[in-house]
Design a protein that fits this description.
- By secondary structure, the chain is mainly β.
- The chain is built from 1 helix and 9 strands; from the N terminus they run βββαββββββ.
- The strands form 2 sheets. A 6-stranded antiparallel sheet has the order 1-2-3-9-4-7, with no helix packed on it.
- The longest helix is centred in the middle third of the chain and has 5 residues.
- The chain is globular.
Amino acid sequence: MPDAVIEVRRFEAPDQRLDMKERGGISIVQMADGTSGMHAIFEKGWRWEVDEKPLLGFPDACPMRHTGYCLSGQLVVRMLDTGRETRIGQGDFFEIPPGHDAYVDGDDRVELILFAPPEHPH
């Protein structure tokens, strides 16, 4: 049996970064097995529609599922098909299905840690 190896990555040295200029950004690290982690910072006034949508090619809604933990701030997430809004705040562990948009509510920055499993080929 080969020796197990512990892999450590840091968001300060991401594999990819979505830069949203003065409104924040997302640092993405990818582990050897394909699992990814993201550190998202959204500043006061951030809106998915304005700040992230253009970076994703202008889809109608966010096409990704997000599982994560909120470190700070208040994020309001809206499901486009129903219009239902859910508030995510500091200390919340959450799962958001595809088909949403979101915005920062209030004066505090939103800081999230997000996790994504490896993509499995079918």
